[in-house]
Amino acid sequence: MAHHSVAEEARRALEARLLDGSWTAGTRLPAERKLAEILGVSRNSLREAIFCLKARGLLFSRQGSGVFVSNLLQATSISPWQQLLADHPDLRWDTLEFRREMEGATAYFAALRANQSDLEKIDATIERMLMAYENRDRNAQHQADADFHESISHASHNTMFLYLHTGIVRLLREHISLNVTDLEDPTLVVTNQLKEQHLRIWDAIRQRQPDTARLLMLDHIDFTRSELAKRCD
Fold first, then answer.
1. What CATH number is associated with residue 137?
2. What is the CATH number of the domain that holds 58?
């Protein structure tokens, strides 16, 4: 009985790393001996825990390479949505409404909970974003913009927000790419406004101002919606 109790604790410890985003899809788990030491369990208990998570499809083995995290938690029926979004651009309004509520909340909690590693990751996306704006590199802008919003979701340290965002990240990237493309502005007026909005959101998060971060994110999404509406009239 005690053996099974220890294995259960090991399983829960592994699950916690999957849920909090420490181990994302494709991550290779540490070597068995090291992982057993980290968790403070025997290798037999660890093997039992891993076997259980493999049976549930959360982990899988590669011959001679080790144990890896599957994409089961991120898996969702995204492809049909991507195609629908491409074929029916009006769906962007529903997507914007969804993003407004979710990302306002993630910005709020990121300002409360972001650790040093989170802040460094957000800062890195901002640096790439500024470089993309400077070089007028549209593809790099799309990537950095999406990475910025995703890094804020991770920094919220809320498991449900993280998996809602991760589960639809391909859809959101498609959505952001479409929006950035449609907001192309030769005068750079709108482009510079978007850039400043991102910078203000980032500043509120690192200054630990959750209410301000949330309001700035809402303003950012509202601005995007307003500018897109002008172009769709």
1. 1.20.120.530
2. 1.10.10.10
- d(Cα 200, Cα 149) in Å, to the nearest integer? 13
Each of the 233 residues of the chain gets a pLDDT tens digit; together they read 334 578 888 998 898 888 777 788 889 999 999 999 999 999 999 999 999 999 988 899 998 889 999 887 665 444 445 555 555 566 677 778 888 999 999 999 999 999 999 999 999 999 999 999 888 888 888 889 888 998 999 899 998 887 777 666 556 656 565 555 556 666 778 888 989 999 999 999 999 999 999 999 999 999 988 887 776 65
Query: Is 0.70 surpassed by the pTM of this model?
Result: no
Shared domain for 117 and 196, answered yes or no, is yes
Q: Assess whether 48 and 85 both reside in one domain.
A: no
Same domain for 95 and 197, yes or no, is yes
The total number of structural domains that make up the chain: 2
Give me the count of residues in the chain: 233
Residues 134 and 227 in one domain: yes
- Cα of 40 vs its chain's centroid, Å: 30
Instruction: For residue 125, give its domain range.
Output: 78-232
Q: In Å, how far are 38, 49, 157, 194, 214 from 98, measured between CA atoms?
A: 39, 37, 19, 19, 14
Helix 169-182 vs helix 210-232: angle between axes, to the nearest 10 degrees? 60
